[in-house]
Amino acid sequence: MNRSPQNHTDILQDRYGLKAASYLSAGTVDLPYDISERLRAARAQAVAARRMAKLQTAPVTAGARSGATLTWGPDEGFSLWNRIGSILPLIALVAGLLAINSLHTDKLVQELAEVDSALLTDELPPDAFSDPGFVQFLKTTL
């Protein structure tokens, strides 16, 4: 038996309603006819309203929807704090990616500076800088 929490809640609400109705009906035995008729009409209206509420809030499967996307309506209860809380992970992700990009760029610049300083401090003949093989070597090592 597969019961959803919503279905279980509906069953409990219906049981409570039946108990309350039985207690109210037991107390109407001594009431005048016009009052008992007004109470009966009010109960009938309440039952009709409950049936309409059940029909309006009946669960719909995702395959039965006509749209391609499922959206949050205004009745979902998303306050400003809930919206901020749902956007906060996205902001953290973007900030993390920017930090990673910055660190990677800094590391690349530092490696290039080390190669440049090693070339400038090393004892190389001036002809080595004009040698095409040396230039190719520098391009392939970076």
Question: Overview of this structure, please?
Answer:
There is one protein chain. The protein has 142 residues and is an all-alpha fold. It has 2 domains: 7-61; 79-142. Helix content is 73%, strand content 0%. It has 5 helices and no strands. The longest helix has 42 residues, at 80-121. The model has no long low-confidence stretch (mean pLDDT 79).
Largest sheet: none
Multimerization status: single chain
Structural class assignment: mainly alpha
Distance between the amino and carboxyl termini: 66 Å
* Helical fraction: over 70%
Catalogue the unreliable spans.
none
Domains counted in the coordinates: how many?
2
Q: Roughly what is the average pLDDT, rounded to an integer?
A: 79
Question: What's the overall geometry?
Answer: rod-shaped
**Given the structure, what is the number of helices?**
5
Rg calculated over all Cα atoms: 38 Å
User: What is the element string, with H for helices and E for strands?
Assistant: HHHHH
Q: Hey, roughly how much beta strand do the residues contain?
A: under 5%
Number of strands: 0
